[in-house]
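Data deposition worksheet. Section B asks for the primary sequence of the deposited chain exactly as it was used as input, without tags or linkers unless they were present during the calculation. Section C holds the resulting structure in token form. Section D is free text for depositor observations; keep each observation to a single sentence. Incomplete worksheets are returned to the depositor.
Section A, Depositor: J.P.
Section B:
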Amino acid sequence: MLDVFCTVYLLRRKGDKLPTQVVRQFPYRGELRYQLRVIGKSPPWNVMKATLIGQDGARYVVPVLDKARIVKVQRDGILITGTEVIPTTLGIKNIKADYFRQSWYCIPEARPFDDQSAAGDWRSDDAEQWAERYLKQSEE
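Section C:
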């Protein structure tokens, strides 16, 4: 399971690729959760889902990404593809939804803190060293 605060850019709308300038206009922020949805008979048969949860911890910021796969991990972000599930009607027995191909580009960020005095408590020595290396690379 992956659980990290991210800025997420949706690369498609109703399955169609969006132009880069449109993608950049609409960043979504929240807690990215990449987790197991269905356990298969062996790891290749497992089904994963990706969700972006708001800061309140109770609502989805964007529709759920089912059958999610991490396709590429780069220095500045993670590319996840899957099937976007958009519920259309809710019922007791039947939940109807529209399904579209979707890709997310996720950029991990430092988690925002409500109480700034707690901001330093979460950092380990390793995290501080990583941040220093990252800042040096950014300056070059």
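Section D:
Residues 2-139 form a domain with the PH-domain like fold (CATH 2.30.29).
The CA atoms of residues 77 and 107 lie 4 Å apart.
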